[in-house]
Write a structure and sequence with these properties.
The protein has an eight-stranded mixed sheet. The chain has a five-stranded parallel sheet with strand order 2-3-4-1-5, covered by helices on one side. The chain is α/β, with parallel strands linked by helices. Strand 2, helix 4 and strand 3 form a beta-alpha-beta unit. Helix 4 runs parallel beside helix 5, helix 9 packs across helix 12 and helix 9 packs across helix 13. The protein folds into two domains: about 140 residues, Rossmann fold (3-Layer(aba) Sandwich), CATH 3.40.50.300; about 250 residues, no CATH class. The chain is about 40% helix and about 20% strand. It is globular and about 70 Å long. This is ATPase.
Length: about 400
Amino acid sequence: MEYDPKKCCMRKKVVLEREPYLAELDKWKDLPFIKIVTGVRRCGKSTLLKIFAQRLLKSGVRPEQIIEINLEDLANQRLTDYQELHRYILERASNSGEYYIFLDEIQQVENFQKAVDSLFLHDNFDIYLTGSNSHILSGELATLLTGRYVQIEMLPLSLKEFKKAFPDKSAEELYKLYLSTTSFPFILEVPSESEFLDRILDGLYNTVVVKDILSRVQLREPTVLTKLTRFCFDSVGNRVSVAKLANSMTSAGTKTDNKTVEKYLRGLIDAFVLYEVDRWDLKGKELLKSLKKYYAVDLGLRRTLLGSGSLADVGHLLENVVFLELKRRGYKVFTGKLDEFEVDFVCTNGQEKIYIQVAASVRDEEVLRRELRPLLRIQDNFPKYLLTLDNDPKASIDGVHKINALDWLLSE
């Protein structure tokens, strides 16, 4: 076969400076808090710290004041011992000036919290950590450092960030590409053909399973875990329970029980592969324990596990994208129950509250009435939105703002 450079060459490396996260790091710089950046593998945490370190250098910080350690680099394997790590940093930071310490993938260090707690005693150390598992924020670290750390949760690319790599595409073309490829930042560096992406995403999923889930969950059944992931990915936007997942898997030929499902489900959530959303009873004003919703961190990862046919579920895909965007914008997100009706998202951020209903299209009058009904029954004056893919002008229907979802996703 003749070599075709257009097909074989990798796309030119693009480094996207993700300003919201950089601004968050800058806001906490030099304050007496440990900065912990968490998120799924390959979402850009390491690159974020590198860019932030470069900005420090440009601001006048000297190179010797910056200590960067990638704890997944084999060259740093001895530093995965917390005492060695502590000793090494103290040797590097031998002077009395300010030091910026960046520890990437800190979960590779067993008992890392002991080293971090000791380093935090030094007033001239500004400490930044990254981790691919929320497990690092539990247990002894949380006990030792309560009130002394801030978590910055990082996600793959938003549609607005994705547009920077494909500026010439219309909103509709961009969204279609966003769904059919991936939101992981490596999309900026590799060909967008599915054969490349599927192999990379499959490798990423297997890495997460081995390093971030099976290594931390006592059970050792990767087949059960993968089938559970598929069930959850296939159910995005639907209300499910642990018992329902266990029964569905058993009926499909994979015998399991509630305890196993619950353990693996927690592993997927801790590794940021899945996000769990609680239900809020708008009338009783309390959290409900049953029937939660789950959303995928990346729809490319979902497509890789479920196949290209999964792209047909337009409404739930849009709901997943909207959920992730709400997380990026700093909202605490719940689903809402109001009598027999369901509100897709009840979102709070401090004193702010908004309600959102998501639908692929509401041009059918019956569908429009169905989607508006729960919002119109809410007895308060907080903003209410109906987001759809209909390319129609904005409208207000009895106080509900009907907006094109792509306009909302690409807005400031």
